[in-house]
Design goal:
Order of helices and strands: EHEHEHHEHEEEHEHEHEHHHHEEHHH
Strand order of the largest sheet: 3-2-1-4-12-11-5
Distance between the termini: 41 Å
CATH topology of the largest domain: Isopropylmalate Dehydrogenase
Strand content: 15-25%
Radius of gyration: 21 Å
Shape: globular
CATH superfamily of the largest domain: Isopropylmalate Dehydrogenase
Structural class: alpha/beta
CATH class of the largest domain: Alpha Beta
CATH architecture of the largest domain: 3-Layer(aba) Sandwich
Helix content: 40-55%
Amino acid sequence: MKIIVDAMGGDNAPQAPVMGAIQANREDGVEIILVGRGEEILKTLADNGISDLPPGVEIAHASEVVEMCDDPATAFRKKKDSSLTVGLTLLKNEAGDAFISAGSTGALLSGATLVTKRIKGIRRAALAPVVPSGNGGTVLIDCGANAECPPEYLLQFAYMGSYYAEKVLKRPSPKVGLLNIGAEPSKGTDLQTTVYPMLEAAGEAGRINFVGNVEAREAVQGAVDVIVCDGYSGNIYLKTMEGTGLFLARELKGMFTKNLFTKLAALLVSGGLKEFKRTMDSSEVGGTALLGIAKPVIKAHGSSDAKAVRNAIRKAGEYISSGIIQDITDHIDLMRLDSPAKEA
């Protein structure tokens, strides 16, 4: 397996992507292509005591960088020698098996759509992170790639999210819920009330395990394996989860460091506290797949450290071996409103 890593993307580049990739190479045996300014990559390696490229690691030079301030829709076109453009082109030309970037989400989505292309028939690619929940993690689709969505987008998100939960998370017959403000089919905006019967029909046909609307509080408890929503609502849900995790961590720290007795209590529950911290740590997840793109593309968090990049590489490996892209391709007729399969 060979993973292409954007060495210039993210708040902590090139240190985090370079050293995260080196860790994956050393400890997991993954072949790596580091894409970016060659001199900066080599300097980063030297600063970390690595004088020569390790076996299985190569550099693909790219002289430009897509900055967070660049226009996402045109950045990769204007900067044709950026690490983002060069990396996606390498993936398109099958020089590697997956591409990972912690850079601009909008530029990555635009570049992946236009360079590596969407799966034929998929209207829009979607970001599908696995968010903490009472059942060990829930697929949230979409979490921000598509702020405004017609019903067909959400129908396709439901199928793609279901395949992801089944193939990557190993959930048999994953429960799919539509994020809403109530359980009744009549709840929500026009988008939710229009897409609900479409998802219900897919469920009745046995194509997905649709369980109806799900409120955010039930979703956090683990009521479903897949949360389907537009990118605007999904991003609010995701950021709320992140903020809640940081808030709880801070409050717990203050509670257990108040005095000698609370510090002793902290020692007694240290194992549970570490597990809670790990559950809420975004670096443990590593990255988010762009579902609907014809080749594996993983978006790492913009603030990713080396640990997060390494875990994103592992996520890429799981995604590659899952066969989900082929599953979506094989069942695309079920996801289209104008498909003959819908009329049969």
